[in-house]
Design goal:
The structure is a homodimer.
Chain A (H helix, E strand, L loop, with lengths): L1 E6 L14 H8 L9 E6 L2 E5 L6 H4 L7 E3 L5 H4 L2 H4 L7 E5 L16 E5 L6 E3 L2 E7 L7 E7 L4 E5 L7 H10 L3 E5 L14 H11 L3 E5 L3 H10 L7 E3 L5 E3 L8
Parallel strand pairs in A: 3-4, 4-5, 5-6, 10-11, 11-12, 12-13
Antiparallel strand pairs in A: 1-2, 1-14, 2-3, 7-8, 8-9, 9-10
Chain lengths: ~260, ~260
């Protein structure tokens, strides 16, 4: 199973419009440091699934027929806004699997165009080609699912954005599931106060609790990038801060099917 | 007054995703024939106003401070989706003038970020730098305003999308106002049946009724481009089908202030 981080940014991305911090200036001068809307492409054999649709150039990145499905974590604009254009396509249908959110986003349900929305239920496994996916409830301001994704060819990958902590049942599921790779919301540097996303401290705790083979932090805000530049903290073993364009190969570990 | 057609496309744009018609194939091979979300930049002296925000790269096109305001015709996604990213900016405020639509689009009102929404009232004139604007009700599936825009330096420009026909009071206003230039919704080739946009026939009638110095047809769908390729109809005098990037200078006519 191959995972491509198409976007690793928090809402607003990096550089943040109008911001002059070191991280935003660096991204303004270094394409490799730009963070676009958080999303990933998951491939296994000839199966290709896009997780989240916040990139606004999906119609240019993915020619008709090149995606088996889109799977949404939730309906915030930075995770679905690419659908506003894609939906008006012609001569194809695109299945879009999503949490059971009765509102959706703007008029997507009213005018779905070529999109076929299919509401998922928590913990109810579904199959897309060579991938099986289990929706895992997360903790966010809208109904949000992470996904435990397994390839028939081997390899277990958990994708968990957007969230602030994990519900007990989701955590328990992941602790027994033993992910080979984990992508986890880590939007902020260490901080206190109410949260809608993981900060660095909470993300590190979750990585330790789940103990995946490898962990990738994503949904990164400019303040976290800035903090990383100035603090250079020691990352937990096997943990990487993902960048746009990073590609990882997820293979099963000994003891996995 | 200078007007730049930043986008001249109907929802879905040209090329339409997945479409193989002659117009979509041509646009796929000819950047000049691409039609992006319908929007325009209006400038007079150092005043710069963006009409509609459907382009998703506004944060790249317009550095902080380069726009005096954004003026919206209505809250359909293809006219506002660029705001989803722009709003998370830092260190600036962007006034966004809009029709009185209590819902807005998605969570723009709930999380406006740097956007300052200001609801307009029909026919109540407002001033932005060297421009005065009069909101004109249009006929569309959401509350929608066109704008009669006058430069203090001379020149009258009417921008009328999205609409199917014109309400009597709007038409009367424009007939007495004598626009030097008109940009008008013309989404479809001649057709029958219920409409949410002008077709070619209705647009031509409106141009004749208003009798502007020049008319530019915009919000063009791929079927209209296809029809124009195959039919080559005679355009009404002084009328042009706008293309993305077209720039027009609007000067006052004799008898205007």
């Amino acid at each position: 199973m191959r995972v491509t981080f198409l976007g690793t940014g928090a809402a607003g991305g990096v550089p943040l419009y109008g911001c002059g911090c070191t991280a935003c200036k660096r991204a303004g001068n270094t394409p490799r440091c730009v963070r676009r809307p958080c999303s990933a492409l998951v491939e296994s054999g000839d199966t290709r699934v896009l997780i989240d649709a916040g990139l606004t150039d999906l119609h240019e990145r993915f020619p008709p027929g090149s995606l088996d499905a889109i799977v949404l974590t939730h309906f915030h604009p930075d995770h679905v806004q690419g659908l506003f254009h894609l939906r008006w396509g012609k001569g194809l249908r695109i299945p879009v699997y999503a949490p059971p959110d009765s509102e959706g986003c703007a008029d997507l349900y009213k005018h779905p165009g070529v999109l076929e929305f299919r509401a998922l239920a928590k913990f109810e496994v579904f199959t897309l080609g060579k991938l099986t996916l289990t929706p895992l409830p997360l903790i966010h301001s809208r109904v949000t699912f992470g996904y435990a994704i397994e390839s028939l060819a081997g390899g277990r990958f958990a994708y968990l954005t957007d969230t602030a902590g994990l519900p007990p049942r989701t955590l328990a599921h992941l602790q027994s599931w033993r992910a080979d790779a984990l992508a986890l919301d880590c939007s902020h540097p260490p901080r206190t106060g109410p949260a809608n996303h993981n900060d660095w401290t909470l993300a590190a705790e979750i990585v330790s609790s789940i103990a995946p083979g490898q962990a990738w932090l994503t949904h990164v805000g400019h303040q976290l990038d800035e903090w990383l530049l100035h603090t250079a903290p020691v990352l937990p073993a096997g943990t990487t801060v993902a960048m746009d364009g990073d590609v990882i190969e997820v293979a099963g570990r000994p003891g996995h099917p």
